[in-house]
Each structure stands twice: as structure tokens, then as C-alpha cells.
């Protein structure tokens, strides 16, 4: 998968633009607030149809009512166009002019590494579960469908529990056990490979402590039905379903201890990077094609080992887009970001701050 160009209109602070991207590493650098993260977010949205913002309106430029993002892609020798239209609480996706659902977009197209990924380690189980579910939904469309059904069943069952409808539980329990069993089984299987890749990546990052990924399960396929009936009184009292994959945690252990509880900030950052490299490798294995790698703010990474790891990762994939407040070294092409605009630069130019006349010239263009 290769991103040939990205066009945006009314997307956050980005000025209307069409940016072209070649193979290798493209560096995007500029001051804080210039729009670098917004650009990567727009690319990720156009490639995957996914965003994790709470309200879609946040993505629309203030003062406007609609936004638009378009990616021109090349994959296996053929070209395609993916478009995302955003309005009030509404997202419309098209591939080559035909409306599709998010699940119909290519599922292994991009991986996005961000400074806030450390939250995967130190944040709540909900965040880790969301990471795992989002990755597994990309590996398997069926996983995504069954997870959606399971989540709807849990909320309907919770409504019945709150209403004290004990008589209706047998029906809900059957559906929950069937869907939950499929989810648990798939998670266990996928975690074996994800764990191996993450362990290797963590070692490649120079960590002397072994990283292991485990599921902390509130139930098992064998005991799920009995767990539900056994805790019926408690569930009716609480009005919620207390066991099942919606309550399970992805536990990350470092040297045998829970990373969430015991890892240092730096160790946690290393674990988060290891998870992202594992995601990249797993998607490439599954789809036989390397995703576009997006690295947000490599310059926020002050540790020299982790910074080198990020840049090596970018250099090792067919296409990577790397942002920073300084120029990413080794980039084949460069954009200078300022106030939501992106100006292509000659990669052989020196740093802008050493060339005031060049900077003045570019500001003039803006
Ligand atoms: N919906 C929106 N409409 C207009 N501007 C927005 C919108 N959402 C965010 N912005 C603006 O976009 C800017 C942030 O851009 P972004 O996060 O991409 O910067 P950045 O270059 O990544 O900065 P940093 O180096 O600090 O991470 C902010 O100034 C913010 O106010």
C-alpha cells in the first residue's frame, strides 16, 4: 500500500491542499501547533476510515459545517481513491466513488505511532482492550462483526438486568456465551503471535526485561454459562454484566511484573513502541503488504535508543511519514509545516533556522 497523495478541505486547521507522497520516508517538520498531527490524523482517517475523536465535529474546521479528506492509493499495481466526508456526527466513506462502510476499507493500510501511546501501558484496561479489539477487528472482519454483536447484547442484557427481568436472562445468556466464546478464542489465538512479535520488538529496543502479553480473563469458554448463572443475584443487584470479554484486560508484564503498575515511564514508552512494531508486523503478515507507517513527533522521543529505533523502523518500510519539530534525518522528501500549510522543501537544504533568507522566502509564499 502506498499513499500517492492526500487532499483535504476544511479539515481542522489544515488549509485546503493536495500533498504528494513518494516511496521512502517523508519528513514533515514545523513548530508546535502547525498542523503536523492533524495531517497524520487526516491520512489515517482517509486510509482506514477510523478516528478516535469523541465527536466527529472536532475534525471539521471551526466555522465550517463539513470536511473532506481524499487519499489516492496504489496497491499491487492498481490505483484507487478513498474519500471521507464529515458532517455533524456523520461520516461518509467512498472507494472509487462508491459508498462503503468502514469495514469495507483495506484493513491493513496504516499504523500510527504517537507520543501518547504510553497510555496503552499506563492507562486503564479499557484503553488496552480497545487497542486489542481494534487490531483484531483489522485482522479479521468477522471478529469486528461478532464484537459489535456481543457489545450490543451486553447493553441489552444490562437494560434487562436493570429492569429486574430475571426471567429473560436465559435468552441473553445463550447469545452472550456463543458470541463471547468466539471472541475469547480469537483473542487467545491472535495474542500468541502478537505476544511473540512484541517480545522480540521489546528486546530489539534494548530492554533487558522480557515483555509478555497475557489476557486477564473474567471467564473462560468452558465456564462462561455457569459464571453467568452463578452471579445472577449480584448482576441483578448491580444492573450490569460482570463477567465476559468486555471486562477482560490485556496484561503487559515486564520481567514478570505488571508494566502498568511497576514500569518506569521510559520502560513504558519502550513497551508501547514494541506494541506498535508488533502491530505493523502482524498486519504485514496478515495482508502480505506493508502498511503506511505514520510516526507523530519523533522529536518528542528524547531517548537516543528509542529515537534511533523509530527512525530505523521508518527507514525499513516502503513508505513512512514522520513528523517532528526538527527535520527527521534521512528523509527522501520534506515538507515544512506552518499554520496548517505544507511547503515541499529540497531534502538537501540545510536546517531552516540556519537559512533565514529561505525561511523568509517560504513565509512570503504562505
Ligand atoms: N476543528 C478545528 N478547527 C480549526 N483548528 C483546529 C481544529 N482542531 C484543532 N485545531 C488547531 O490545530 C492546531 C494543532 O495542530 P496539531 O496538533 O496538528 O499541531 P502539531 O503541529 O502536531 O503541534 P505539536 O508539535 O505541538 O504536536 C491547534 O492550533 C488547534 O487549535
Task: Write a short abstract of this structure.
This protein is an alpha/beta fold and 366 residues long. The chain has helices at 36-48, 119-122, 125-139, 141-162, 169-204, 224-230, 232-238, 259-262, 265-287, 304-315, 356-365; strands at residues 2-9, 17-20, 24-30, 67-75, 78-87, 90-95, 98-100, 110-113, 211-216, 249-254, 257-258, 292-295, 319-324, 333-338, 341-345. It is found in: Cytoplasm.
What does it look like?
The chain is α/β, with parallel strands linked by helices and 366 residues long. The protein folds into two domains: 185 residues, Rossmann fold (3-Layer(aba) Sandwich); 176 residues, RecF/RecN/SMC, N-terminal domain (Glutathione S-transferase Yfyf (Class Pi), Chain A, domain 2). The protein contains eleven helices and 15 strands. Strands 2-1-4-5-6-7 form a six-stranded antiparallel beta sheet, with helices on one face. Helix 4 crosses helix 5. The longest helix has 36 residues. The relative contact order is 0.17. The mean pLDDT is 92. The site of adenosine-5'-triphosphate (ATP) has 17 residues, from helix 1. It holds the Pfam family SMC_N. Its main location: cytoplasm. The RecF protein is involved in DNA metabolism; it is required for DNA replication and normal SOS inducibility. RecF binds preferentially to single-stranded, linear DNA. It also seems to bind ATP.
Amino acid at each position: 500500500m502506498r499513499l500517492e497523495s492526500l487532499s483535504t478541505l476544511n479539515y481542522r486547521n489544515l488549509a485546503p491542499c493536495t500533498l504528494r507522497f513518494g516511496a521512502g520516508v517523508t519528513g514533515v517538520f514545523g513548530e508546535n501547533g502547525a498542523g503536523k498531527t492533524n495531517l497524520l490524523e487526516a491520512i489515517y482517517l482517509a486510509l482506514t476510515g477510523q478516528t478516535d475523536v469523541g465527536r466527529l465535529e472536532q475534525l471539521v474546521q471551526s466555522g465550517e459545517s463539513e470536511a473532506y479528506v481524499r487519499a489516492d492509493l496504489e496497491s499491487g499495481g492498481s490505483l484507487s481513491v478513498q474519500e471521507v466526508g464529515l458532517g455533524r456526527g456523520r461520516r461518509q466513506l467512498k472507494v472509487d466513488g462508491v459508498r462503503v462502510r468502514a469495514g469495507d476499507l483495506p484493513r491493513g493500510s496504516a499504523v500510527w505511532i504517537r507520543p501518547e501511546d504510553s497510555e496503552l501501558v499506563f492507562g486503564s484496561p479499557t484503553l488496552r482492550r480497545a487497542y486489542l479489539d481494534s487490531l483484531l477487528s483489522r485482522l479479521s472482519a468477522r471478529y469486528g462483526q461478532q464484537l459489535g454483536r456481543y457489545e450490543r447484547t451486553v447493553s441489552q442484557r444490562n437494560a434487562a438486568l436493570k429492569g429486574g427481568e430475571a426471567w429473560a436472562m436465559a435468552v441473553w445468556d445463550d447469545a452472550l456465551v456463543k458470541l463471547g466464546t468466539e471472541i475469547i478464542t480469537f483473542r487467545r489465538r491472535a495474542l500468541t503471535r502478537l505476544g511473540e512479535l512484541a517480545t522480540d520488538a521489546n528486546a530489539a529496543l534494548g530492554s533487558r526485561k522480557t515483555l509478555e502479553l497475557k489476557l486477564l480473563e473474567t471467564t473462560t469458554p468452558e465456564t462462561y454459562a455457569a459464571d453467568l448463572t452463578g452471579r445472577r443475584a449480584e448482576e441483578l443487584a448491580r444492573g450490569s454484566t460482570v463477567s465476559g470479554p468486555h471486562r477482560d484486560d490485556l496484561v503487559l508484564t515486564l520481567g514478570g511484573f505488571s508494566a502498568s503498575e511497576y514500569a518506569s515511564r521510559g520502560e513504558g514508552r519502550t513497551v508501547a513502541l514494541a506494541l506498535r512494531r508488533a502491530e505493523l508486523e502482524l498486519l504485514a503478515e496478515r495482508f502480505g503488504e506493508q502498511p503506511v507507517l505514520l510516526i507523530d513527533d519523533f522529536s518528542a522521543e528524547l531517548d537516543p535508543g528509542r529515537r534511533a529505533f523509530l527512525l530505523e523502523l521508518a527507514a525499513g518500510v516502503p513508505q513512512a511519514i514522520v513528523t517532528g519539530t526538527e527535520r527527521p534525518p534521512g528523509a527522501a522528501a520534506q515538507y515544512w509545516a506552518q499554520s496548517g500549510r505544507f511547503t515541499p522543501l529540497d531534502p538537501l537544504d540545510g536546517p531552516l533556522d540556519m537559512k533565514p533568507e529561505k525561511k523568509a522566502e517560504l513565509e512570503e509564499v504562505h
